[in-house]
Amino acid sequence: MKYSVPQTFQERFPNDISFAELRDSPTLLIGGFNNPMTVELTKGLRFVMSARDEIDDAQDSHRRWVLHASADSHDTEDYAIVTRLIQRPSNAPMLSVAGMGQYGTLAAADFVCNPTAISDMLHHLPNDWANKNLQLILHVKVIDFKPVATEVVAEHAW
C-alpha cells in the first residue's frame, strides 16, 4: 500500500485572506452569500446565486432554481452550487461549495467528499470533464433539519 505525505492547510475566514493569495494555493471556499470570496470569484460564471432564494442560469434566462424558504427555518429543500475551477490563468485550482442556506452548503460539502456521489455524478458529465472547469446545481431534500438526499439537477463543464 502506498502512503502519501499529509498536506498542510490553512483554515481562514474570508476577511483574513486576499485575492492575491488565492493565486498561489489550491483553495476550498465554503458558503455562498455569507462568503464574499465565493460571491466575487463565481459572479461571472454560468450558474450564479442571484438572490437569497434563487440560482440563475446566465446562458438560459428561462432556467432558474427558486427556494421557497419557510418563515420558521423548517425548510424541506435547499439548493447548492458546486464550482470547480482548474483552468484559471495563472491561478491555482479552486473548489467552492455554496448553498442557498445552511443545508445546501452542508449537503454540497458532503457531496464532494462522498466517493459514491462522485461516481454517480460521472453519468451526467462529458467524457473529458476531468480536465475542465465544472459547475453543478444540487437539489437537497431536508427532513428534520438535516439534508437527507442530494440530486444533481444541472451541470456545466467548459
Account of the 3D structure:
With 158 residues, the chain is of the alpha+beta class. The chain has one domain. The protein has four helices and eight strands. It has helices spanning 19-22, 36-42, 102-112, 115-121, and strands at 27-30, 47-51, 54-57, 64-66, 77-85, 94-99, 134-143, 146-157. The strands form two sheets. The chain has a five-stranded mixed sheet with strand order 1-6-5-7-8, with helices on both faces. The longest helix has 11 residues, at 102-112. The mean pLDDT is 87.
List the keywords.
five-stranded mixed sheet; 4 helices; single chain; three-stranded antiparallel sheet; 158 residues; alpha+beta
Topology:
Elements: H1 19-22, E1 27-30, H2 36-42, E2 47-51, E3 54-57, E4 64-66, E5 77-85, E6 94-99, H3 102-112, H4 115-121, E7 134-143, E8 146-157
Parallel strand pairs: 1-6
Antiparallel strand pairs: 2-3, 3-4, 5-6, 5-7, 7-8
Helical/strand content category: alpha+beta
Shape: globular
Number of domains: 1
The residue fraction in helices comes out at 10-25%
Poorly predicted sequence stretches spanning 5 or more consecutive residues: none
Adjacency order of strands in the biggest sheet: 1-6-5-7-8
| First-to-last CA distance | 35 Å
Radius of gyration: 16 Å
What portion of residues belong to β-strands?
Answer: 25-35%
Arithmetic mean of pLDDT = 87
Treating each run of at least 4 consecutive H or I residues as one helix, how many helices? 4
Number of β-strand runs: 8
How would you characterize the largest beta sheet?
A: 5 strands, mixed
Q: What sequence of helices (H) and strands (E) makes up the elements?
A: HEHEEEEEHHEE
